[in-house]
Amino acid sequence: MPDALLARAAQPLPAALLNLFKRGSPLTLDRDEHLATIEAIHSGLAGLNYISNEQIATAVFLAYHLDKPVLIEGPPGVGKTELAKSVADMLGISCIRLQCYEGLDESKAIYEWKYGKQLLYTQVLKETLGEILDGAKGLTESVAKLHEFGDVFFSEEFLEPRPLMKALKEEAGCVLLIDEVDKSDHEFESLLLEMLSDYQLSIPEIGTIKANPDRKPLVFLTSNNTREISDALKRRCLHLYIPFPDADLESQIVQARVPEVPEELKRQLVTFIQALREMDLKKVPAISETIDWAKALILLHTESLDAELVKQTLNVILKFQEDIESVTGEVQMLTNKALKGS
Predict the structure, then answer these.
(1) What pTM, to 2 d.p., does this model score?
(2) Residue among 165, 167, 191 at smallest CA distance from 177
(3) What is the Cα–Cα distance from 230 to 240, expressed in whole angstroms?
(4) What is the block-wise mean pLDDT of the chain (342 residues), using blocks of 10 residues?
(5) Are 306 and 335 in contact (CB under 8 A)?
(6) Which helix (H) or strand (E) holds 5?
(7) Which of 75, 99, 246, 287 is the most buried (most CB within 10 A)?
């Protein structure tokens, strides 16, 4: 990002400009101060050991002030889910998570009727039917009285909210994480469109449920790119792509998450991981594997990499046996490269 743009983005938004945004109220609460500038977001996330960059911090800043969901794409293990959880921790609000999978439908994502409670209510209604119809003259009046109780039958009292509805009903606001949306069906994406564009959900028996206009949920969707996301869903979201980090950023992440690791060992393991990602593997190691490996090496009282130790711990960073077998023959060369720092 150009320096001039960074300097401009670091300035708090003018009060007149704030009034243009849907959230409406000036940034006066502690929660909002964390989102007042891009630099504040960057620093706030760093304080929680989530090392972001300008692109990530800018996406969070714009998502909040423009009331737009963020679709985060990238390979598995680069910190997409962790970003949403860290933003929630930074703001001191709850993170409501919806884990997507094939076959996910509205009964698991939006709402479900409390059938047991409805059956119990039906039984009570039968037992008190005489009292309910007492004084009713003719079929028309009897049906009208029963109809009053039928309206109660399909009310919020009998509704079990699922993650999407829970997020809308959070008066204090929340972070809504729709995780691995690419694992769901195209039909489920259609269910999301109203929620992502208007922050509301329509329930046939009840009507429309809307979010608090001043505390709409901050929505993050993640995708591992296992399939193409529909244009309709993408159009409603800001786009953020998080790739594997370069050596410098990965070193900062390891330092934040495993501060006990010696400086020289940190440099070596990051160099080794970076070289592994250039190989033709079924699954290259992600940041999470780098962190796990750093922790494992600390537990083994390691001060410097050696080929034998690397072979013994390859299962920490590689998850397929064919990858382990493929790398084993190259371990000495990769270790030497890491030791030299080239």
Answers:
(1) 0.80
(2) 167
(3) 16
(4) 47 47 40 83 94 94 94 94 96 95 88 66 64 62 63 67 91 94 92 91 84 92 93 95 95 95 96 95 94 96 94 96 95 93 58
(5) yes
(6) helix 3-9
(7) 287
